[in-house]
Amino acid sequence: MSRPPAVRLDRLLANLGYGSRREVHALVRDRSIVLDGQPVVDAGAKVSLTADLPDRLTVRGAPLDPPAPLVLMMHKPEGVVCSHREPGRSIYELLPPRWRSRTPALSSIGRLDRDTTGLLLITDDGPFLHRVISPRSHAPKRYIATLRDPLRGDEAGLFASGELMLDGETHPLAPARLEVLEPRLARLIITEGRYHQVRRMFSAVGNQVLQLHRDRIGGLDLPPDLAPGAWRRMSREECESVLAQES
């Protein structure tokens, strides 16, 4: 079994957003960093990045934040954006403030627009992010759409045909699966992530999405006990389920 990597304590805490290396040295002088029950006296000491490190190391009396790689699931609420650059409140404001200073930075895996709610993944794990968003993964994403008008009845066939062309695009959409739940309520499963895709698909058939909610990515469901605005760390098994083809 290979040994876990080791890193200087001051570098680790600076990368986790606790402050500059100078500020981490000040925490050490103040005896605010405790490892295995003993105050750390050397900010340059190396620590092993074991899975139990957050249980063994505290900063100002609180457990260490999870080191990278970190994957989170969030129940994105309505009215927040997924970009650092868009105006308005962002999903990153729902996380601990110092996490905005983490290195590597946290990013959403794909985006949900301001008015769309539901399952959103956030990570600092670049390889995992690219595995999920790669066109080769074909990770299905499931949405519940509330519509302005009753469905006509031909939408499922058109969406499944692989021939639907969105306005302004040159390639048709991959086949998608539509299930009618009520006259104005539908479940849609897509395997692509084009800009505002679900809203544009219904617009292409003369309808309008009034509310949109994503409840599954791959084989991972949005937990029913995860409230809007809440988030939690994902297990390795949950991360692997994202890439499952079941839908």
Notes on the protein architecture:
This protein has helices spanning 9-15, 21-29, 53-56, 126-133, 155-160, 197-204, 236-242; strands at residues 6-8, 33-35, 38-39, 46-48, 57-59, 62-63, 71-76, 107-108, 116-123, 141-147, 177-182, 185-190, 209-217, 220-221, 231-233. The protein has 247 residues and is an alpha+beta fold. A hairpin with a 2-residue loop joins strand 13 and strand 14 (220-221). The relative contact order is 0.14. The chain has 7 helices and 15 strands. The chain folds into 3 domains: 6-63, Structural Genomics Hypothetical 15.5 Kd Protein In mrcA-pckA Intergenic Region, Chain A, CATH 3.10.290.10; 71-135 and 223-242, Alpha-Beta Plaits (2-Layer Sandwich), CATH 3.30.70.580; 141-217, Alpha-Beta Plaits. Helices cover 20% and strands 26% of the residues. The longest helix has 9 residues, at 21-29.
Structure keywords:
3 domains, Alpha-Beta Plaits, 247 residues, nine-stranded mixed β-sheet, alpha+beta, Structural Genomics Hypothetical 15.5 Kd Protein In mrcA-pckA Intergenic Region, Chain A
Give the SSE layout.
Blueprint: E1 6-8, H1 9-15, H2 21-29, E2 33-35, E3 38-39, E4 46-48, H3 53-56, E5 57-59, E6 62-63, E7 71-76, E8 107-108, E9 116-123, H4 126-133, E10 141-147, H5 155-160, E11 177-182, E12 185-190, H6 197-204, E13 209-217, E14 220-221, E15 231-233, H7 236-242
Helix pairs in contact: 1-2
